[in-house]
Design goal:
By secondary structure, this protein is mostly helical. Helix content is 45%, strand content 3%. It has 9 helices and 2 strands, in the order ααββααααααα. Helix 3 packs across helix 5. The longest helix has 19 residues, at 28-46. The termini are far apart.
Length: 211
């Protein structure tokens, strides 16, 4: 280690009473077993609902660095539920998460989550509140009888690949100088105000001459 400047030499006593500061991990197998038991108990408690819980929307990660990635969000917007034809109060009772605060900033996100809701709705089996007394909107008796608890991920989110397909460069594209084009666009943007001012002054001078 190279030391710089007139500072105190490092002389830490890390071996002093180390037995009190040591972190052990002897409970790891026990905790693993506890988590497994808890998962099995939860699955039995919420049956016949899916083990994965509520259906979540696909949303973009925040900031320019991560916004190319899709992840599961908190809940579907009221607009998405309306487009999919699902009542906002009924949605929560059939395993769909609702977030009244989120807004749709683009048509793409709206369409993606509406398709997600429709796919879920097509596979959904709604049990009657009272066995043998189905109401409007409940599934048929045969579907209810054959239903099993879904144990996998609930409509897992697939990343959308935005990479363009590889192709040969066209002859007219080879003639274009991309660097010059960018420099010209940059220059145009930088000098826009000065050029507008010059044009305005020239127009005023001509107007004064006519008087």
């Amino acid at each position: 280690m190279v030391l710089k400047h007139n500072n105190q030499l490092p002389n830490q006593h890390f071996r002093k009473d180390w037995q009190r500061r040591v972190k052990t991990w002897f409970d790891q197998p026990g905790r693993k077993k506890s988590r497994r038991i808890a998962r099995v108990q939860k699955a039995a408690r919420i049956a016949p609902r899916p083990v994965d819980g509520l259906l979540r929307p696909a949303v973009r990660c925040p900031t320019q660095r991560y916004n190319m990635k899709l992840r599961s969000g908190r809940g579907f917007t009221l607009e998405e539920l309306k487009e999919a034809g699902i009542n906002r109060k009924v949605a929560r009772t059939v395993g769909i998460a609702v977030d009244h605060r989120r807004r749709n900033k683009s048509q793409e996100s709206l369409e993606l989550n509406v398709q997600r809701l429709k796919a879920y709705k097509a596979k959904l089996i709604v049990f009657p509140r009272k066995a043998g007394k189905p109401k409007q909107g409940d599934s048929e008796a045969a579907e209810v009888a054959s239903a099993v608890q879904f144990r996998g991920g609930l409509l897992p989110i697939q990343q959308i690949s935005a990479a363009p397909e590889a192709r040969a460069i066209a002859a007219d594209e080879k003639k274009v100088n991309a660097f010059k084009k960018l420099r010209y666009a940059r220059s145009e943007a930088r000098t826009l105000g000065a050029r507008e001012k010059r044009a305005r002054e020239k127009a005023e001078e001509e107007a004064n001459k006519k008087k």
